[in-house]
Amino acid sequence: MVEHRKGLNRALFWLYSGHGRLPSIFRWSMLVFDIVTISVFLVHPLVSWHDGVEAATGIWLWVDIFIATVITLDFLARFYIERHKWRFFTRWSNIADLVVVATLLLPIFLQNLVFLRVLRVVRLLRAFEYLHREHGVSTWLHRNGFIISKVVNLAVFIFLVTALVFVTQIDHNPDIRNYLDALYFTIGTLTTVGLGDITLPDTLGRIITIGIMVLGVTLFLQLIRAIAVGDKMRRPCPDCRLQLHDRDAAHCKRCGADLFADDEHSDAIPHG
Fold this sequence. Notes:
Blueprint: H1 7-17, H2 21-48, H3 58-81, H4 85-88, H5 92-109, H6 124-132, H7 137-169, H8 179-190, H9 203-229, E1 232-234, E2 244-246
Antiparallel strand pairs: 1-2
Helix pairs in contact: 1-2, 1-3, 2-6, 3-5, 6-7, 7-8, 7-9
């Protein structure tokens, strides 16, 4: 609780989880930063990856250092106000922040790791959590969170696989000349409507193609299922762990357990 915190810990907790004008401005500022950051992450490979080379110099170097600094400070602040430190590293979004910082800094020193930069798209997870803190917006997210999570998963999968296609094919596949070619192939294969103008000819390429189609179809089916579920509340039953219930449900439709029993014992922990 805020009243049990003191000094800097109390102030930071208020900014991340409190109510009022300043906390709202702070969280919206972080959300804007995330949106700009994700845009930079998506545009950067398209304009800087050519013939397998991406220079970590010039303005991009300073942009990377600035973004890494902000994300690191944000990460340390959230870790500082976390009561149960071990829980902090059980959340995928926090692990994603570590991955993002690593992909920003490691390629500066090791050019053969530049392909890691595309992993920055996992920053989508952090933007998703910041929106959950805002009243009104969080209500909409709560209603549509199941669908949005599947869309985010699909987007992350597309960009990760595109990076894999790029780094494994750029040196010996004349059809893959830049990151956009790799993205074009990934989308075509993922939707199983590939035109055949770009193919991955070797054994590794065929394995990647099969993996894209199998995993891609799975993610598409999950997205369709999320849409078909409709207006359901994602609230795990404390007893049988059934995930989805009607929004006006107070008890689990499978076992009858109280869905909100755990709330009486929970402590407010900031998740973003």
